[in-house]
Each structure stands twice: as C-alpha cells, then as structure tokens.
Amino acid sequence: MDINYLEIRSSITPVNSIFIGEFFREIEREGNFKLKSVTKEEWVNSDFNLVYIATGGTEGIFLDNIDLFTKNTCYILTSGESNSLAASMEILSYLQQNNKKGEILHGDSATIAKRINTIYKVNKAIKNFKGKRLGIFGKPSDWLISSVYNKDYLLEKFDITLVEVPMNEVIREIKLNLYDETKDTIRLKSMKYDIVEVDKSLYVYGGLKRLVERFNLDGFTIRCFDLLDSVNTTGCLGLAILNSEGIFSGCEGDVPALLSMIILNNISGHPVFQCNPSRINLKRNEMVLAHCTLPLNLPYEFNLTTHYESGIGVAIAGLIPIGDMTIFKTSGSLDRYYVNNGTIIRNLKESNLCRSQILIKLDDFSYFTSNPISNHHLICTGNYKEEIEEFFKNLN
Question: What is the three-class DSSP state of 44?
C-alpha cells in the first residue's frame, strides 16, 4: 500500500538526509505501507494524501498552494528536524484561524504509523459510503416511530440514493419461487431442517437478490414482517445469505440501521449483526442483544430454527466469537451517533428471545436508558471505536 505525500521544504534550511531516510523507513516498517513522494498533479488526484513539511521557512510556500490543502482535512507530517514541527504549528494555526481542518502527525514512528493507518482506513470508508444506491422494500415497520430519515438530504449531502420498491412488487418477485444454487443454499438444505420451509426461505433469497440486481443496489432494508402472511415465511435466512455475499441487507425497513451497517462494515471489514437490545443488568454492566438473522459468515456455528415472534419460517441461531466487539448506531441524518468498544462474554440460548443471542459487557449503559438512537444497534467483532469517531469527524 502506498501513502502519497507532497514534500515542502525551504531552499535555505539544511536537511539531515540520513536522519530523514531512517525516519521514513521506521514509519514504513511500523505501518506496513510505503511512503511515496509525488508531484502536485499526482497529489491532487490521490484519494488520501499527506503534506510533509521538511523544514522551517515553508509557511509562505504552503500559503502559495493553499487551495490544494483545504479541500479536505490537511494531515501534516513532521520529522522533528530542521524546524519542521515549528513550521507545521504555524501552518496548523493558520488553517484553524480560517476554519479549515488540519492535524499534525508527530512523535515516534509507531505512533505516526498507527495514526496514518487509521486515517487511511477512515478516508477509504467515507469514499465507499458515499454514492451508495440503497433499496427500501416496502415502508419501514410501523413500530419504528423514531427511525426517521430524509431521502433528499441523504442524496444531497452524501450522494446516497434511496430506491423505494413497493411491497407488492417484492412479494410478486418472491412468488416466482426461483433462486440460483450456491454453496450456501446447498449447505443450508443439507442441515436436516424441514426442506419445504428451507425452500420457501430460499425463494425469498432469490427474489430479493433479483431485485438488488434489477435496481443496481448496494443494499436494502425490507419490511420483513409483511412476508409472514403474504408468502408464509420470513426473510431471516435470505438476509443472512445476502449479507454474507456482501449485499447489505437490513430488517424491518430500518434505514438508519442500514446506514449504520454499511459504515461499520466499511470501517471494520467484518460482517455486521443488526440486533435488538433485550435486557440490561446495570449492576454487572451487561446487556443481552438478540435477533433472528445475522450474516452466515459471522457465527462460527449455527443451526436453523423458526422465527421467534411468529414461530414460522427459518431463522438463524448462531454462536458469535467471544471477545472484543464494537457496538454502533447512527441517526438517519448522520448528525448523531453512538459507538463503544466492549466484550462478547457469552452466547445464550433463551427460548423467550430472538434466536441469535449474545451477552456483552460495556463500561457504561447510560446512553441506552437516557438518550438512545432508536432500537436496532449494530455489532461487529473487534475494537473500532477510534475509527468510527474519526469517520464522523471527517464526514463532510
């Protein structure tokens, strides 16, 4: 991986080239990337850039090229030699006085490398988030009274297109009773569960996938409870397969949850579990989360059962890896979010909850009881709080 930088130096200030060479090599070793010096033209056309202030006396040169550096956050790499830090501080102060974003990358090589990797990952996630085409299959479920969004705002601000597909069209596609055979469908049919019910669920999978292809969608959310009466099954299995195939697939027509799913996946690179907070133990700092679907590539083991509320269809009861996790949710306008790192401490198998259940530990639960962002929250394995915070700091 190359990280491009544009070097700015004064012609009159001496530079210790031996020190600088080793400084760059140490950062590259720690970060597992290559720092690449580029021209102005190459720098402008790069997705992510650094400005390397090599010496003092460079403030005027920076100012002469200010239009290059103020389109996005200006990340200023310093060496700690030749008055590099002093000049960078003057530059950052100027940016802040003019309401521009900037940050100095300074310190030991490990600290700088870690910060560069974080910024690179976040910038890539922002780029991948913008411009998505997302389907709303039917309307949001009636009980999602606070899970609001503004279609026009999302298009204008983030170039996200919401494509509304009426539920009768969704049901008509499902009733074609067709799906393409894949390794997942073969595996699911071999699990010795009621084959008639599995096939009905796979018809849902086939119908949803064809709609994704027809409307050229990156993902969708579906008013899934309408399937109970119309096709006498649920969407749980179909969503599980589609999510594992890389198609963002959300429950209950919940658009903010779908946006949250995309962000968390783009940041972490891991499959994401959309779930309900079900029970909190404030004395033990523990909470139970549950839902009837999750990506097939998330649990290390799963079995098939019925959908919890209806007792019909096919749902996933999966065991999610124990250990570090991130919980996240954003509002439909992305003006507010919640994120925290925690620990998955146990998988549960309670009969009175949705089928995939985990017990997690967090350091604080006041958000959930005093100021939550609606119901559904998103879970992935690993700790990504820092990256999520960086994502929203840089989301324009």
Answer: helix
Report yes or no on whether pTM surpasses 0.70: yes
Q: How does pLDDT run across 324-369, given as a tens digit for each residue?
A: 999 999 999 999 999 999 999 999 999 999 999 999 999 999 999 9
Q: Which helix (H) or strand (E) holds 381?
A: strand 377-381
Instruction: Read off the pLDDT of residues 175-194 as tens digits, 9 standing for 90 and up.
Output: 999 999 999 999 999 999 99
Residues 136, 220 contacting (CB under 8 angstroms): yes
DSSP-assigned letter for residue 45: T
Residues whose CB falls within 8 Å of the CB of residue 139, separated by 6 or more in sequence, listed in order: 167, 223, 253
> DSSP H helical segments within the chain, as ranges?
17-31, 40-44, 59-64, 66-69, 84-97, 109-129, 151-158, 167-174, 183-189, 195-214, 227-230, 236-244, 255-268, 366-370, 385-394
Give the other-Cβ count within 10 Å of 195's Cβ: 12
CB 378 within 8 A of CB 260: yes
